[in-house]
Every structure is written in C-alpha cells, then in structure tokens.
Amino acid sequence: MWNLISTRVTQFSYFDQVLEHPAWKGSKLDFGGNIGTFLVGAGDSIEHDDYWCIDLNEAVIEQGRLTFPRGHFVHYNRYNSQFNPNGVRDLRIPNCGVKFDMILAFSVFTHIDRVEMLELVGSLRSMLAPEGVLAFTFCDPRYDRSLSDIRLKPH
C-alpha cells in the first residue's frame, strides 16, 4: 500500500483564487482534507478552531489531530475501493454539529462515480449555513475549454 498522507499544500491558494479572495471567516469543512495540509497553505488566514476536516482514512485523521490540535478531525468510515476498502458502503457523512460557512473538497469527486458524487454533494449542501459556499474540484472528460474561454473561440 502507498503512503496515504498528502503533502499537497496548494488547496488554499486554489480556492482563494477561484472564490475571488473571500473573507476566510467562520466555520470551514475540508471534505477529504487528509491531514489538514489546507491549513499549511492558508497560513494565518484560517483560524484553526474554525477548521473541520472529514476524511475516509483513520490514520491521516490521527496525524491531522497531532499536527493541528486546535482543528477538528473526523473519521468518515465510508467505503472507497482506493482509500477505505473496509469501510461501510453508503454511510452518511458524520454530523459535526456545525453548519458550515464554507465547505471545500479538493480532488475528492475524481475518485468516485457520478451517482455517489451527486449524493455526497447533496449531503454537503445540507450542511451549509445560510449564505454558505460549497466549492469542489472534479474532472469532466467531455470538457472543452474552447467552448467557455472567449480567447479560444474562432473569430
């Protein structure tokens, strides 16, 4: 088995740019956030007390708790063939007792099928505070950038 601890620290800068530099106040959920490296990239922009991370892998959750003791790290024992093959199929997302101002998911939905993605996105939306924001990445194999980027359209 490969090392499941992520060293990627670019998630904050990615979402900061895509969301046009929001005020990073209030509660944040990093869905599939691994050990919380989002916080490394965020620097002082994020209060660790307002940061929640849910991940499928219990070992990375434990490491996150050790690395960022003021953050909240929750194990989500849902089945995933790659990251949690012994998990429970169709398990609901844990209730953290918080409505989130921002929910972020970086490179989560690339590892599941469309049906599961739609179910999870619906569940995540129900966890948002009023005026809350849900932002995530995914790969669309049929995406054609030329159809959405005016600079690439033929004249």
Overview of the molecule:
- The protein has 155 residues and is α/β, with parallel strands linked by helices.
- It has one domain: Rossmann fold (3-Layer(aba) Sandwich), CATH 3.40.50.150.
- Helix content is 23%, strand content 18%.
- It is built from four helices and five strands; from the N terminus they run H-E-H-E-H-E-E-H-E.
- It has helices at residues 11-18, 37-42, 58-67, 114-125; strands at residues 28-31, 51-55, 72-75, 100-105, 128-136.
- A five-stranded parallel beta sheet has the order 3-2-1-4-5, with helices on one face.
- Helix 3 links the parallel strand 2 (51-55) and strand 3.
- The termini are far apart.
- The model has no long low-confidence stretch (mean pLDDT 90).
Topology, element by element:
Elements: H1 11-18, E1 28-31, H2 37-42, E2 51-55, H3 58-67, E3 72-75, E4 100-105, H4 114-125, E5 128-136
Parallel strand pairs: 1-2, 1-4, 2-3, 4-5
In short:
With 155 residues, this protein is α/β, with parallel strands linked by helices.
Structure keywords:
single chain; 155 residues; alpha/beta; Rossmann fold; 23% helix
Helix content: 10-25%
- At CATH level 2, the architecture is 3-Layer(aba) Sandwich
Which structural class is indicated by helix and strand composition?
A: alpha/beta
Kindly identify the CATH topology.
Answer: Rossmann fold
The CATH superfamily is Vaccinia Virus protein VP39
